[in-house]
C-alpha cells in the first residue's frame, strides 16, 4: 500500500478457503455442524470489512471534486476503525470454525448459541490484564501455533485498534488533528474554477496525516499535550494493519496444512462437493 491509498492483496485467504473446502469433503473431515458454512460466513464478513477499511481510508486521503465538510474526517476515521476491529473478529470466527472441524473439543462449539457469543480474539491472545488472567483456547496452540504466536507479537497493534474503535463507537471523537494534502492533480483547481482562491481551495483538501489520541480511554483531566514524536498516526496504524493481515494469512495456511490432518490432500475426481 502507499501512504494515501490501500490496494488489498489477500491471496493467502483464497488458499485458506480452498483448504477449508477440501477439508469439508466427506472423504476428509465432512461438514459436521455446518462448520464450513460458519467458516465461509466469517471469511466473507472479513473480506467485507476490509473492503470498507480500504474504501474509507482511500476516500479520506483522495482528491475528489466534492467539498469536504468538517465532520467528514471523523466519519471516515470511525468507520476505518470499526472495519479494522470487525475484520479481526470475523477472522477469529472463521478460524474457530476451521479448528472446530478438526478438534471440536478444543474450540468454541459452533452448534451452541452461547459458545458462538463467546468467540473473540481473546481466544487467540488470552487476556493477561484481568485477574485471574484469561488463558487462550488450547486449540490454537495445537492447530495454529505459528498464527497464535504472530498475533501475540502484534498485541499492541490490536489494542490500539480495539481502543480507538471502542471510544469512537461509545464515547467521543478520536480525530485529534493532522495535516492536509497540498499536492492536487494537475488542473484540479482549474476544473473547479477556483484557481488561486486559497479559501475556496481549502474546502477540497484531503488529509495527508491524521493524528489519533494516545490512550483514548484516559480521563481528559489527566491528559497532557501530545509531543509530535509521541503521536499515533492513522497512516502508520493502517500500514501496520495491512502487514498484519498478510502475515496472518500466511501463518494460517501454513499451520492449517501442517497440523490439520486430511485423508486426502487433493480433491478426488467423481466426488461431489457439498
Could you please describe the fold and organization of this structure?
This protein has a domain at 11-174 and 236-259. 54% of the residues lie in helices and 5% in strands. It has 11 helices and 3 strands. The chain has helices at residues 11-23, 35-61, 72-102, 113-118, 122-125, 138-143, 145-153, 155-170, 188-192, 198-202, 234-259, and strands spanning 175-180, 207-212, 232-233. A 3-stranded antiparallel beta sheet has the order 1-2-3. The longest helix has 31 residues, at 72-102. The chain is globular and about 70 Å long.
Class inferred from helices and paired strands:
mainly alpha
Bulk shape: globular
Q: In whole angstroms, how far apart are the ends?
A: 37 Å
Q: Which stretches are low in confidence, meaning pLDDT under 50 for 5 or more residues running?
A: none
Number of strands: 3
User: What is the mean predicted local confidence, pLDDT?
Assistant: 92
**Beta-strand residue percentage:** 5-15%
Major sheet, described briefly?
Answer: 3 strands, antiparallel
Q: State the helicity in percent bands.
A: 40-55%
Radius of gyration, whole Å: 22 Å
Query: Would you list the SSEs in sequence order as H and E?
Result: HHHHHHHHEHHEEH
Order of strands, widest sheet: 1-2-3
Q: What oligomeric assembly is this protein in? A: single chain
Number of helices: 11
What's the topology here?
Layout: H1 11-23, H2 35-61, H3 72-102, H4 113-118, H5 122-125, H6 138-143, H7 145-153, H8 155-170, E1 175-180, H9 188-192, H10 198-202, E2 207-212, E3 232-233, H11 234-259
Antiparallel strand pairs: 1-2, 2-3
